[in-house]
Prior knowledge:
Elements: E1 4-13, E2 16-26, E3 31-35, H1 42-49, E4 57-62, E5 65-66, H2 71-80, E6 81-84, H3 96-106, H4 112-125, H5 141-153, E7 159-163, H6 171-186, E8 190-194, H7 198-204, E9 207-212, E10 215-220, H8 222-227, H9 232-238
Parallel strand pairs: 3-8, 3-9, 6-7, 7-8
Antiparallel strand pairs: 1-2, 1-4, 4-5, 9-10
The structure holds adenosine-5'-diphosphate and magnesium ion (MG).
Domain ABC transporter: 4-238
Keywords: Amino-acid transport, ATP-binding, Cell membrane, Membrane, Nucleotide-binding, Transport
Pfam family, one: ABC_tran
Amino acid sequence: MSLIETTEVRKSFGATEVLKGINLDVEGGEVIAIIGKSGSGKSTLLRCINGLETITSGSISVAGAQLLDDDVHLKALRLKVGMIFQQFNLFPHLTAGGNVMLSQTVVKKTPKAEAEATARKMLERVGLSHKFDAYPDELSGGQQQRVAIARALAMQPTALLCDEITSALDPELVAEVLAVVRELAAEGMTLLMVTHEMRFARDVCSRVVFMHQGRVHEAGRPEDVFAHPQTAELKQFLGVS
Ligand code: ADP
Ligand code: MG
């Protein structure tokens, strides 16, 4: 049984079908890059897996549990699957430490002292132990995104979904965030990441999934997908002919 299984997942917004039957199985410890043009459905797929969108048909399971559209299931699911976005969405009035503690104390009802200890540990993991008391506006974009990663990790997820997490960063700040992701991958975290960092995808990911018009159009090992794209659409996306 795979950690994440999507079976014939379809998603429509009104009359527009955005996901047209997605079958994707993710094994524990896999690091998958999802690539594709803007509008191909990448974010929608991640949002469906995290229960932020309700699917129109098909099924999704995480760690053997079917994703059902009710509050109890969704809450349990979000504890297992963390998500990190392009925008860091930190609370500006809370310190880095406070941001990492918040979902633990609110969602998991973790006692404050334990949440703080976990927050310190997770901030250390992303190289920011010295920034526990800093407010978001005192941090660079790269540091803020690393706090967002620490916040997701504090929930002890079994998988992390990353949606273009370096796209809002100045170029010189991208590497520090990717370095953290690279480390998580090396530690065995299951990662499903939408990314434009092809070099990173090639170096770190075990599988690349190319989405086109709401379908998985081509997928495989990075060395195959990048060196020998099969379809005209992927060739065009990669800029090779
Ligand atoms: P990607 O992340 O690959 O750029 P998205 O999943 O964001 O693609 O979007 C896929 C398509 O779904 C786009 O055409 C987009 O306009 C549409 N879409 C996404 N979210 C919504 C929504 N909440 N309501 C209506 N249309 C949406
Ligand atoms: Mg997107």
